Amino acid sequence: xxxxxxxxxxxxxxxxxxxxxxxxxxxxxxxxxxxxxxxxxxxxxxxxxxxxxxxxxxxxxxxxxxxxxxxxxxxxxxxxxxxxxxxxxxxxxxxxxxxxxxxxxxxx
Length: 108
Prior knowledge:
The chain is mainly α.
């Protein structure tokens, strides 16, 4: 009931996972954008991250003869330390920026 008093509709009150999903997407998308921008700005970092990802990619030929690449996402954290740490750092920077910008707008 407290959520309804705060203006959340009953649908989100019954399905709190929707809010969590929205929070993840809203926070992750800007971080992913800035991470890609940063990584592509540094050719050596890009080369190293491509190497990390390439080491865990698997390939196979499908029925039509097309090469299909697969990535087991569960291996990324352990096999791609540069990719993981780069994302974590950029994510932290984006969070600090948006938090401080939001705080500044509300306090002005």
